[in-house]
From TrEMBL:
InterPro entries: FHBP-like_C, OMP/PagP_B-barrel. SUPFAM superfamilies: OMPA-like. Residues 53-150 form a coiled coil. It comes from Rodentibacter genomosp. 2. The keyword Signal applies. This is Factor H binding protein-like C-terminal domain-containing protein. Keywords: Coiled coil, Signal. Residues 29-38 have a biased composition (Polar residues).
Length: 402
């Protein structure tokens, strides 16, 4: 708009300049009143035109100045725009480069993922193969250890069995006798033994399924003045060297059973208790002759807890009714149950001798044989006869306290 006004002002300026020049062409005319008026008006008009011309010149000068300012600003804007366009071009180029890099990296990532998956699959297969081989190695090593252990065990048993036979034969040769049972209760001169607990080796020869067999072990004999408790540990069998063996109390033997009991007072019997050759303990048993009751315990075993002989009443001993004895239950702190029986020996009940049976095989002990287990007839939840642990014991009475 300002450029348009500038062009109009320029045209008007040129026109006015032309009119002024044409009006003054004839200065020789004589002056007249009308001419003077006209001259005054012309002069006034020229003055006004001059004033207007000056205004237009001023406006024109201002417009030109503004035009120059606008042109300068336009140059600056164009220069800035050129910079922006250059920066945009560089950014676009950088973006394209980054997109290409992203594409390359994605392809590399895909390749690495595939390589990792393949490696993991291979590792899984190798791991499974290693686990299978390790398990097979462990199985073979276990079998090897078992064979070595069993071989060493059988060798040890054979050595012990041979030493046992050698010892028994030497003992029998000294006594000048042989029988199908060598050593043990049946050929041992019990009367020649001192009072106390004795362990005597024996070897038995018997027929099994029509074939000869040999078994060996140890007799455990506890001798007192009036009574004997005899146990037998069957440890070796020629037909089964890996057999578990068994232990049972064969019998208690006495020369004199008590026929008349004291009628009053309390007394404590002290002596020994045992099961197999490796477990020996003590007996403590208290009897009240007035109330005809008794109770006690078997204690001080190695690796076996105390066995409580619960209170029982004195009655006739054994099935034939000869002598006196006590039958009652037995118990342990862990809840294991059992039973016991004893008899009085000597003219004035100087001794007791008996046996106890626990209704399970205790740790570190030998179980009883099948016949003894059936005698007590205790069964587990499946109805099988339990083969528990049996003890023998005997003791001598102290002074009767009245």
């Amino acid at each position: 708009m300002k450029l348009k006004n500038l062009s109009v002002a320029t045209a008007l300026l040129l026109a006015l300049t032309g009119c002024g020049s044409s009006g003054g062409g004839n200065n020789n005319r004589p002056a007249t009143p009308n001419n003077e008026i006209k001259n005054n008006q012309t002069t006034q008009n020229q003055t006004n035109q001059q004033i207007e011309l000056n205004k237009i010149k001023s406006q024109l000068s201002q417009s030109q100045s503004e035009k120059q300012s606008i042109e300068e600003k336009l140059k600056q804007v164009n220069a800035e725009l050129a910079k922006k366009q250059q920066a945009l071009s560089q950014s676009t180029k950088s973006l394209q480069q980054q997109q290409e890099q992203i594409k390359v990296l994605q392809q590399e990532k895909t390749r690495l993922d595939q390589a990792i998956a393949q490696a993991q699959s291979s590792n899984t297969q190798k791991t499974q193969e290693i686990e299978m081989l390790t398990a097979e190695k462990a199985r073979v090593e276990s079998e090897l250890n078992n064979v070595v252990e069993n071989t060493a065990k059988q060798k040890q048993i054979l050595n012990e069995f041979n030493e046992l036979i050698k010892t028994v034969v030497e003992n029998e040769q000294e006594q000048g006798r042989y029988s199908n049972t060598i050593g043990g209760h049946y050929t041992t001169d019990i009367d020649s033994l001192n009072n106390g607990l004795h362990t005597i080796p024996f070897v038995m020869m018997y027929s099994e399924d029509g074939e000869g067999a040999v078994a060996g072990g140890y007799s455990t004999i506890y001798k007192q003045n009036y009574s004997i408790v005899y146990g037998r540990e069957m440890k070796f069998y020629s037909s089964d060297l890996d057999g578990f063996g068994n232990y049972r109390i064969e019998r208690f033997v006495s020369g004199d059973k008590t026929t008349t009991l004291p009628s009053e007072g309390n007394a404590t019997y002290r002596g020994k208790a045992f099961t197999s050759t490796t477990h020996k303990g003590d007996l403590t048993y208290n009897v009240n002759f007035a109330t005809r009751t008794g109770s006690g315990k078997l204690s001080n075993f190695n690796a076996i807890d105390d066995i409580h002989l619960d209170e029982g009443r004195i009655g006739r001993a054994n099935h034939n009714g000869q002598g006196f004895g006590i039958e009652s239950s037995a118990s342990m702190a862990d809840g294991t149950k059992g039973e016991y029986e004893l008899a009085f020996y000597g003219p004035n009940a100087e001794e007791i001798a008996g046996k106890a049976y626990m209704y399970k095989q205790l740790d570190n002990t030998m179980r009883v044989n099948g016949g003894t287990a059936r005698e007590y007839n205790q069964k587990d939840e499946q109805g099988n006869v339990i083969r528990g642990t049996q003890f023998g014991f005997g003791g001598t009475r102290g002074e009767i306290q009245k």
